[in-house]
């Protein structure tokens, strides 16, 4: 009887110890490492028999691959096999639902994009039509990556609208039919995969924090400048949505509201007027009227920059969105109009990810969602050399 009790006590302890040792091995390998078993022994302090067992289990589960080294590391004699994490062990997708374009990417656990697909959609397409486009773009991205949809561990979709804590889109002026709708639930039923719905500006902030202009910071304001202006917020490295999901909706404040297209092209301009790039090009060439319009826009955007900087005091502010294609011209113009008092203003940087900011932010969030269900992935993400933008359950 006593022997049976001891076995019952020891079994969970050995299981916990084995899980901890497995995490040590994965952490030593990292998402892109290639090490021999001897090098892993040095890095982890684990015995050869323990490593052999763990590597065998990880290999059988599809987490680790082994093969000969690219070069003979040890001179004469039979070269030792090297082990590495298989990037394809986890695949996820990030989606950006824009006014005119829906984009999707499939990426592996290192964040490397394996496939991309995008398609245009009418600006006033009804909600069901836009949802069908999202599904089609996801399927075509998976086809391009040569994987089935059910191989994806998680999906994350960036949408133009306010998203509450349940994932319901509270309000979307771009896709009014989605207001009050649980689009994420519909996509989960269709795909049978975990789906997270996130405001697009917040996802862009995550993307720039992970792979772009805000790397290595904790508090980030991403100014999404398109037809209108909104902000994505990371505070303490975590997405900040506020009580109802509306944090960052600065365009809803009358004093900060700017119709960017009309400022650049006049009151009669349509929201999707294709002449906007021409104004920036003319301003860069020194054309007085175009330059004055860009300065007018910059002075208005500077009010939002100043307000957010004083309220949040972030490490960095990133200018992104469709109008950020104007590049340094717009960033430098906004900078000129932001008053600097006692050097308190944070740096204003041009976003580095352009049209990929939302989809890459979606990849990061999808990986975090998958990590919430898988401790092996969690340790690999923590080892990626970037702060984690909050756990996703």
Description:
The structure is a single chain. With 393 residues, the chain is an alpha/beta fold. The protein has three domains: 2-85, Arc Repressor Mutant, subunit A (Orthogonal Bundle), CATH 1.10.10.10; 90-205 and 356-382, ATPase, nucleotide binding domain (Nucleotidyltransferase, domain 5, 2-Layer Sandwich), CATH 3.30.420.40; 221-351, Nucleotidyltransferase, domain 5 (2-Layer Sandwich). Helix content is 41%, strand content 19%. It is built from twelve helices and 15 strands. It has helices at residues 2-29, 37-44, 48-60, 127-145, 183-191, 200-211, 260-265, 276-284, 288-312, 328-337, 357-371, 375-382, and strands at residues 35-36, 64-67, 82-85, 91-97, 101-108, 113-120, 152-159, 162-163, 169-171, 195-199, 220-225, 229-235, 238-239, 316-320, 348-350. The protein has a five-stranded mixed β-sheet. It has a five-stranded mixed β-sheet with strand order 13-12-11-14-15, sandwiched between helices. Strand 8 (162-163) and strand 9 (169-171) form a beta hairpin. Helix 8 crosses helix 9 (288-312). The longest helix has 28 residues, at 2-29. 41% of the residues are buried. Residues 1-11 and 383-388 have low confidence and may be disordered. This is ROK family transcriptional regulator. It holds the Pfam family MarR_2. InterPro entries: ATPase_NBD (IPR043129), HTH_MarR-typ (IPR000835), ROK (IPR000600), WH-like_DNA-bd_sf (IPR036388), WH_DNA-bd_sf (IPR036390). It comes from Georgenia deserti. Belongs to the ROK (NagC/XylR) family.
